[in-house]
Design brief:
globular, 6-stranded mixed sheet, Nitrilase/N-carbamoyl-D-aminoacid amidohydrolase, alpha/beta, 269 residues
């Protein structure tokens, strides 16, 4: 499989964000990508009121309609990043996998919510969003098992272990990692999750400044099961592609069979 990570600077302008997602997704498909991953909250990013204004209905929201049409037209598996989906008067930060037939194959709602303070700025996702309640894997057209995750999930290795136990050999990580945490943690966490679970990681990050002074760090990347970074994006709206070598992954898992050596850890081992 050839995979692509799309990097965007999303704003409060849904039409502009849709045009950018469409342009970069098509460019990735022209480069041969059969799997394309978009970043977190790509239809609208900024303060809570902007995210709420750009929230979508899963059935007929314009971002979802576009994703289904684009995947079908291009014949690709599209992880349409994550989208703020309306759930009554609340939101659910939801990753959406659309198959090459344009049908939604799976949805995953972000489990841990980003209630933190970074570089003096407070983020409180729980004020407006509800968390998901389960880990989700989904199957690409070529049979690849994809573990779905979103941004802050990257800090929780047990989630990725659960996804790998369910058969995932590739993790999709749509993100809007902040600028400071991208510089300090992003590369390390991506490589760690890949190495720990001997899986491919396709991580699509936001980049640059968003409304309200939010800043994302970019460096969208594709990492192999040995922890080698196959592709990294420059600091611009762009996409990166890499070929994922299934045979190499099988060799890693066969010669360093750490996944078969797991035990149930506790106070006594």
């Amino acid at each position: 499989m050839r995979a692509a990570a799309v990097q965007m600077t999303s704003t409060d302008d849904l039409d502009r964000n849709l045009e950018t997602a469409d342009r970069l997704t098509r460019a990735a498909a022209r480069d041969g990508a059969g799997l394309v991953v978009l970043p977190e909250k790509w239809p609208a990013l900024g303060p809570a009121e902007i995210i709420a204004a750009g929230a979508q209905d899963l059935d007929d929201g314009p971002a979802v309609v576009w994703a289904r049409r684009a995947a079908r037209e291009l014949g690709i598996d599209l992880v349409a990043g994550s989208v703020a989906i309306r759930a009554g008067d609340r939101l659910r930060n939801t990753a959406i996998h659309v198959g090459p037939d344009g049908e939604i194959r799976a949805t995953y709602t972000k489990l841990p919510l980003f209630d933190v303070e970074v570089d003096g700025r407070s983020y409180r996702e729980s004020e407006h969003e509800d968390p998901g309640d389960e880990a989700v894997t989904t199957t690409a057209a070529d049979g690849t098992e994809i573990g779905l995750s979103v941004c802050y999930d990257l800090r929780f290795p047990l989630l990725y272990e659960a996804l790998a136990r369910e058969g995932a050999t590739l993790f999709a990580v749509p993100s809007a990692f902040t600028l400071p945490t991208t510089f300090a943690h992003w590369d390390v966490l991506l490589r760690a999750r890949a190495i720990e679970q001997q899986a491919f990681v396709v991580a699509a990050n936001q980049v640059g400044e968003h409304p309200g002074g939010m800043r994302s760090g970019g460096r969208s990347a594709i990492v192999d099961p040995w922890g080698v970074v196959l592709a990294t994006a420059p600091d611009s709206e762009t996409h990166v592609v890499a070929d994922l070598d299934d045979a190499a992954q099988e060799r890693v898992r066969a010669t360093l069979p750490a996944l078969t050596h797991r035990r149930e850890w506790g106070a006594r081992v």
